[in-house]
Amino acid sequence: MKALVLDASAALGWMVDRPTPPQAARARHLILSGATPVVPALWLQEVLNAIMMAERRGRLTPDQVGTLAGELEIFLTTAEVDMFLVPPGTMIDLARRAHLTVYGATYLELASRRRLPLATLDDKLRKAARRAGHAVI
What is the C-alpha separation between 129 and 63, in angstroms, rounded? Predict the structure, then answer.
């Protein structure tokens, strides 16, 4: 596999969740084995927000957050950040049809447009991707 769309939930699965969900471990393994993670521009903000929420809830220490921030800086040197701007009406239509948030629809649109498998822990997004004929990790 050359590339995969990595949503925030899958990345957070190996960064924060204990135990690590199998789908997140698989996505991480594929990336460590050379698959390029492709993420939409909103990905970093989603991941950082979830990390900060985990710190506020006592799931992560400030030191762990600092370590993750450093790892994210390195990670982003290997990731491809897709900056394509999808028209608002198109995103709303996709979110409606797939019964997803606009955030979830962003990952589905990216996987569709780039014809890439999608790594996610989000059940609704997994189902929508499968309905659309996409491989899901």
Answer: 36
Q: Are the C-beta atoms of 38 and 3 separated by less than 8 Å? A: yes
Q: pTM of the full predicted structure?
A: 0.94
Q: Could you read off the pLDDT of 35-45 as tens digits, one per residue?
A: 999 999 999 99
Instruction: Record the tokens describing residue 124, joined without a space.
Output: 């609704």
Half-sphere exposure of 58 toward its Cβ, with a 13 Å CA cutoff? 0
CA dihedral (51, 60, 58, 125) positive or negative: positive
Residue 1 has pLDDT above 90, yes or no: no
CATH match for 3-131 among 3.20.20.220, 3.90.1720.10, 3.40.50.300, 3.40.50.1010: 3.40.50.1010
CA count, 13 A, side-chain hemisphere, 95: 13
Beta bridge partners of 94: none
